[in-house]
Automatic annotation (TrEMBL):
Gene3D superfamilies per UniProt: 1.20.1050.10, Glutaredoxin (3.40.30.10)
A matching Pfam family: GST_N
The protein's name in its UniProt record: Disulfide-bond oxidoreductase YfcG
Chain ranges of the GST N-terminal domain: 1-80
Native species: Variovorax paradoxus
Amino acid sequence: MMKLYFDPQSRSQVAKWMLDEAGVDYEIVPTLIREKAHKKPDYLKINPAGKLPALVDGRTRVFENAAICMYVAEKFPQARLAPSVGSPDRGRYLSLMVYSTAQLEPSMGDSLLGLHSNNSARGWTHFEQAKDAVERELGYGPYLFGAQFTAADVMIGSMFIWHRAFGGRSNRPKIDAYIDRLQARPKGMKFG
Ligand SMILES: N[C@@H](CCC(=O)N[C@@H](CS)C(=O)NCC(=O)O)C(=O)O
């Protein structure tokens, strides 16, 4: 059975949300940050960055939420959590998965931490510009791929859910309505 290395008070909840949406069996391996379990040599063999979460599936190990979500979507195509390989939407899907973690996550982190820099040489820009990009991609919704809920909603949505949990407001009615929809899903991401 797949094993999810998990601390409930961490981004491990993103991978858990994805696995729950896929409706598959997995085992939770408690790996608590406060106990420094994520820095132990055995865990570093799974995720060399010493961060949570990580997923182990037989001889396969996957770290970074975006990779875990893509792995799960690919392994369980019947869950329809990604546009299929070869479909015209596939490129946009891959782009949004990488965008979520390469640009949205750091710009949101800057915003929460009050680190304001407009130096786009870092590879990402201000959180407000990231919100613009998400609004453009949302179109008429309800999800990023219209009626089909996908791993891209897990990755992009979880960033905004996390932002909310830390008291941030998006101040974008369209994004707020989207996040409300995601949180209302029966298997939506939980915290703590
Ligand atoms: N981009 C990574 C972020 C992982 C991450 O930063 N995890 C945090 C918990 S929310 C962590 O393990 N921090 C502990 C540390 O770095 O020592 C992902 O999505 O997997």
